[in-house]
C-alpha cells in the first residue's frame, strides 16, 4: 500500500517526523542547524576542538560568499534569459545585471533581435529528370526563447533538415529550365512556403525572415549549353528593352507629325473656305452688273482673266490670220539675249575708258622737264 493512497494512513516521509505534522525541510532551517552544530563543536574544553570549529566556520562562510558571488550574471541588450528552477521553467529575464541562486536556477540567454542565417546546398533531381546543384540560404529570427531552447532537441539541426527537405521537394516538382532561368523567384517563394509548413507543427519559436536563392548550377557536362541558353534569353530581354526604348522615342515624333499635319490640314481648310467665300462674294457683286450688261461684263471678265494669266508667262502665241499659221514668240529668250547684249556693251565701254585713262597717265609721267620748259619758252617768245 502506497504512502499517499486514501484510507487514513499518512505515511508521508516528510510529515509526522518526531511526532509532529511538518512539511519538507526549509533551507533556512538547514543552515541554522548547521551553524548550531558548528557552534556547539567549538564550545568544548579542548583548545583543538575550538580551533577546528573556527576553521570550519571560516570555510563555510567562504563557501557561502563564493556561492553568492557566483550567482551574478549579465543578460545583453539583444538577449532574453530563460530561467529554469530545478529543471522546470520559472520565468524570463530582461537585459541587465541579474542574480540567481547557483545550483538552484539555470539561465539560458537567447538572442531574440539579431537575424541568423543558415545555408544549404546539394545536387538534386528535377521533375524532368535532370541533375542540378542548388544553393540557398534561410534567414530567421527567434521570437519565443523558451520554445526555441526546449521545443526540440537541436533547433538548428532541425531547421537545417527542414530546409533541405523543402528545397528538395520544390526542386523535384520544377523543371531545370525554370530553376536556372526565369523561374528562380517562383522557386524561392515555394521553398519559403514549404519550409514554414514543415516547421509549423514543431512550434520551434522562430520566424522565417527571408529565403535567398544564391546559385543554381547545371552539371559540368552540359554547363556550356545552358550558359548559351541563358545568354540567348538575356539577349532576348535586352532586344525587347531596346525595342521598347525605340518605340518610346519614335512615338512622340509620330504624334508630333500627326498633330502638325492635322494643323496644316485645318489651316488649308480654313484658307480654301475663306477663298471660296471671297469668290462667292465677288460673283455676288458682279451678278447685278452681269444682269444689266451681260456681254460687256463677260468681255471685261475675260480680259481681266487673260491679263492675269499672261502676266505670269513669258511666251506669246500670235495668230497669223492671213496664212493660218500660229507664230511663237519666245519673249523670255529675246529679253534674256537683249539683257546680255546690254551687259556686254556696258562692260566693253567701261574697259575702253579704263585703258584710255591708263595711256594718258603713262604719257604724262614720261614727259621730261626740259621739254616742258622748252614749250614754255616757245609760248613766251610768241607772246
Automatic annotation (TrEMBL):
Entry-linked SUPFAM superfamilies: Band 7/SPFH domain
Domain Band as annotated: residue spans: 70-230
Localization (cell): Membrane
Domain of life: Bacteria
Keyword Membrane: yes
Residue spans of biased composition, Polar residues class: 341-363
Assembly and binders: HflC and HflK may interact to form a multimeric complex.
Protein name as it appears in the record: Protein HflK
Organism in which the protein naturally occurs: Aliiglaciecola litoralis
Gene: hflK
Amino acid at each position: 500500500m502506497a504512502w499517499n493512497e486514501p484510507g487514513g494512513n499518512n505515511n508521508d516521509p516528510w510529515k509526522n517526523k518526531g511526532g509532529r505534522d511538518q512539511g519538507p525541510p526549509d533551507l533556512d532551517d538547514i543552515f541554522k542547524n548547521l551553524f548550531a552544530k558548528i557552534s556547539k563543536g567549538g564550545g568544548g574544553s579542548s583548545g583543538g576542538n575550538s580551533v577546528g570549529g573556527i576553521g570550519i566556520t571560516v570555510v563555510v562562510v567562504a563557501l557561502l560568499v563564493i556561492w553568492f558571488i557566483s550567482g551574478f550574471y549579465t543578460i545583453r541588450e539583444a538577449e532574453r534569459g530563460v530561467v529554469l528552477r530545478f529543471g522546470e521553467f520559472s520565468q524570463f529575464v530582461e537585459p541587465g545585471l541579474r542574480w540567481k541562486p547557483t545550483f538552484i536556477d539555470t539561465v539560458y540567454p537567447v538572442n531574440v533581435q539579431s537575424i541568423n542565417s543558415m545555408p544549404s546546398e546539394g545536387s538534386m533531381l528535377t521533375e524532368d529528370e535532370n541533375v542540378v546543384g542548388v544553393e540557398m540560404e534561410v534567414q530567421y529570427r527567434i521570437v519565443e526563447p523558451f520554445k526555441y531552447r526546449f521545443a526540440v532537441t537541436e533547433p538548428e539541426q532541425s531547421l537545417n533538415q527542414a530546409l533541405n527537405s523543402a528545397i528538395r521537394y520544390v526542386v523535384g516538382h520544377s523543371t531545370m529550365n525554370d530553376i536556372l532561368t526565369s523561374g528562380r523567384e517562383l522557386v524561392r517563394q515555394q521553398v519559403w512556403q514549404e519550409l514554414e509548413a514543415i516547421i509549423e507543427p514543431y512550434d520551434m519559436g522562430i520566424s522565417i525572415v527571408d529565403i535567398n536563392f544564391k546559385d543554381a548550377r547545371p552539371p559540368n557536362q552540359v554547363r556550356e549549353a545552358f550558359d548559351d541558353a541563358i545568354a540567348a534569353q538575356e539577349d532576348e530581354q535586352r532586344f525587347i528593352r531596346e525595342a521598347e526604348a525605340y518605340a518610346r522615342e519614335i512615338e512622340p515624333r509620330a504624334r508630333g507629325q500627326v498633330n502638325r499635319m492635322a494643323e496644316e490640314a485645318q489651316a488649308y481648310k480654313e484658307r480654301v473656305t475663306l477663298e471660296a467665300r471671297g469668290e462667292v462674294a465677288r460673283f455676288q457683286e458682279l451678278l447685278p452688273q452681269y444682269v444689266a450688261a451681260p456681254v460687256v461684263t463677260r468681255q471685261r471678265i475675260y480680259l481681266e482673266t487673260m491679263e492675269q494669266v499672261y502676266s505670269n508667262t513669258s511666251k506669246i502665241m500670235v495668230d497669223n490670220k492671213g496664212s493660218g499659221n500660229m507664230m511663237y514668240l519666245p519673249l523670255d529668250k529675246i529679253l534674256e539675249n537683249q539683257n546680255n547684249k546690254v551687259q556686254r556693251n556696258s562692260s566693253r565701254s567701261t574697259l575702253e575708258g579704263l585703258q584710255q585713262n591708263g595711256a594718258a597717265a603713262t604719257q604724262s609721267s614720261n614727259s621730261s622737264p626740259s621739254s616742258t620748259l622748252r614749250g614754255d619758252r616757245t609760248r613766251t617768245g610768241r607772246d
